[in-house]
Each structure stands twice: as C-alpha cells, then as structure tokens.
C-alpha cells in the first residue's frame, strides 16, 4: 500500500480487518462488536473522506489500494449504514472513487460498481426491501415500506419498555425477571439508533432502570452515546432520565460540566441573565439538587478556578451556579429535600447556614448585622490555632467565594449603611487575600481601611474630580499586589455607583484605571453581578441602573 504521512493515523488496516470480521453482522457477537465501534468508525470514515476528497479517484486508489473492499463491505453492514451520519459519509467516500472521465475498462467497471453501491445505500435510506415476498406482505397490510418499518420500530420499543417497566415493579419475581446481560445487550443495540425519535421512551426507561444488581448493567458505550447526543441537542430527554444518567455514570457528568464551562467561555455574554439561561438549559443546576451531583460539579468548578488562577470570570460563573442551585433547593418539596450538610459535609455548619441565606430573605436593615455575624464566625475559624492546613484554608475560602453575593453586598453596605467597618473590611480582605503569610491579610485590612476612610470623606460631595480620588486610584495603579488592587477596585467602583458625585466622573475614572492596569475583567464582572442583582431585586434607582448599563457598554469592547 502506498502511504503518506496521514495513512498510519487513519488505521486503515485495522478497520479493514474489522469489516471482514463483521461481514453483514449476522451473529450476536458481531452485532454487539459493531455497535461498540460505531462512533470510532464514523470518525474514521470522516477522516478518510477528508483525506481523499481533493485527490481524485486514481490517487485515492493508489493511496489506499483496498479502499473498495473496505467501503463495499461496510455498505452491506446494516448496523453501519443505520448509524447517525455513517451512511452519508460512505456515499461521500464512494463519490470520490467515481471517475468523471473514465479512460479504461477498469475505470468504467469501477464506476459501475460505485453506482450500484450508491443505489443500494439510497434504497436502504428509504427502508425499501429487495425481497418480493416481504414487499407483498407489507402491501397486503395496507402499509408502504416506510410506514411498516416505522410502526415496527415503535412496536418493538413499546414492547421493550413494557417489559422493562414490569420487571422493575416486579423485581422480586425471579421467574419473570430480565437478566442483567439482556438489559446490557439492549443498551448496546440502542447505540446506533440513539438519535431516532421513536427510541426516546426506551432510552428513558433504560436510564431509569436499575434491576437488582449492585453493578452497572447498562453498557458504558450506551451511556456515553446518550450523553453525547444530549449535549449536542440531538435528543431530548426528561430531567429525571438525565439526572439518572449522570448519577450512574460519572464520566458523563464530568463531560457535561466541562461542556457547560466551554460554552460559557466561548460566547460573549453581556449579562448574567444570559449566563443563568445557558446554565438552566444544561440542567446541571437542577441536577445539583442531588448532593452527589452537586459535590462533583463543585469539585470540577474548583479545579477550573485553580487552573485559571482564580479569574473573576470563573468565580462569577460559580457564584451564579450556586444561586441557581439554592433556588432549586429552596423550591424542593420538604419531604424530598436533602439537608445542607449533605452538600457541604466537611464545613462548619453554622457558617454554611449563614451563607446560604439569600439577601432577599432579610430586610435590608438586617444585612449589616448578618454580615458581621458571617465575618465573626469566619474570623474565629481562620484564626483558630488548630486551623493550620493550607488545604483547609482554601476549602473555607472557596465556600465563602461561592456565595459571593454577600461579598458584593458587604462592599456596598460599607458606603450605604451604618455598619461596623472593621468586621466587613476583614471579610472582604479575607476574600481577596485569604493567606496571612508575612501579615499579608493584616496589611490588606490596614490599606483597605485607609481607602475606605478617604472614600467616606467624599461620599456626600456632589462635585468631584478624578484628582479627588487620587489616593484610591493610586492604590490601584501604583501597587503590585493583586489582592490590594482588586479590593480597592471593588470599593472604588461601588463608590462611583452609589455616591452623589461619583456618577459624574464614573466613566472617566474607570477608563483611567482599566487603561493603566489589568482590571478590565474585574470591573466588568463586578458590574454585571451588580446589574443582575438589581434586575432581580429592583432595589436601586433608575439613575444608577442607567450608569451601570453605560459602563458595561464601554467595558464590553475591552473584555
């Protein structure tokens, strides 16, 4: 076989051996093996087509002398041509072997062979039978071929669904029970037909079926194929079936979570309403009402946060997800609701209970008191002499960070309400600088107090210039420590939003600090979080909302 650099990657010989081994898939063993290999075979056929599509028939045959034998065998395998887009890809490959200007008897014969295979594939796609007896029988029933096979599929699915459901309810009836191997075989045979709409009731029944075995009885190939089709929107399943899929197959849950993150990173999202909509559409916040799913998704988010060095965009995604999860959890029927400890088993439970209370559950006059309560509990935990492990410190920081809504409110309350600033500033300092090596956090609190005092002196002023905010701006543009920069940016941005004079210079000031520092994304995420909360609470005046929208439009171009 003539080879170039792409041929070894295609594993041509491997798939030819498989095609010969399978034949027309007449035995149970060969049928199961075909079903297990269909996704990889389809990928191979697509790569083969990409390799030969521009080369011409002569070059394709020179490159792959046995390509005709491979394609010919696959075209007569009903499982192969019935799977997803394999039939279409086979047609594409055959067209590449057709000579538009045949110059020899061999090429003429090859063209005739290609035409016969294309006719076979086209007739197969219309559910036509080559057997006169079968065709006559179907006609006698008053059906066309297409109608007959459609009803045949529906009846087969109905029969299997009924059998599985009866077995589920009569699990103790050993005589009438279905063996685990049979259920496994049914799941394998579903793989090539996953996207067939008539198969959906069977997919749902299989996903909800457990039988009496402690081990997983559905094939992993089936579970992966269902998850893949669901993520690509090729099938629609009830929530209960999707949740069951993720509970019984961890790789599918992991893939769904990573798929959600990829979606959120790959599109320009202009509001957290859009983020929330994408999340709800994924069904992951709803599925997280089960503690096992919540803990795994949370762990994946945690790893994503560490891999991106704690970027504000990832943190905002995690915070929105946590809010959506809390909505689902609070709406759960009390009889089916899991206790909070099931979701946060290793955390200080009074702190968990304080964080999960949503701000709208309290009168705004009580927010300051609740923030001090959270800060005091957190400080007692962190400064406990037995609390020395960096891992423990990170875990408690991540817990607080997940409920970032309270942190944003803390920064607002410093400016808008009568609060105990020391407790609230310590809470914010812990978020931005959880470690206290070389008194880093202590120094952060001291610097934050200086910025806060300066901003409060200017809070009632109606006529401000950028020079008046020089102290705060310098602490953002003139320091190297990221945590000090981020905390000061948080305080200053809120000052611009909520002070009387801040509105007038907000755009100029934010343009200045985002131009001279790498804080564009930090400011942008803070603003969209604030806008999201205002849209759901209606607590702010229209002037502030208008300013928010103007700032977001300016920053969208930068991020």
Automatic annotation (TrEMBL):
It holds the Pfam family Fanconi_C. GO terms for biological process: cellular response to oxidative stress; interstrand cross-link repair; nucleotide-excision repair. InterPro entries: FANCC (IPR000686). This is FANCC protein. GO terms for cellular component: Fanconi anaemia nuclear complex. The gene is Fancc. It comes from Struthidea cinerea. It comes from the Eukaryota. PANTHER family: FANCONI ANEMIA GROUP C PROTEIN, FANCONI ANEMIA GROUP C PROTEIN FANCC.
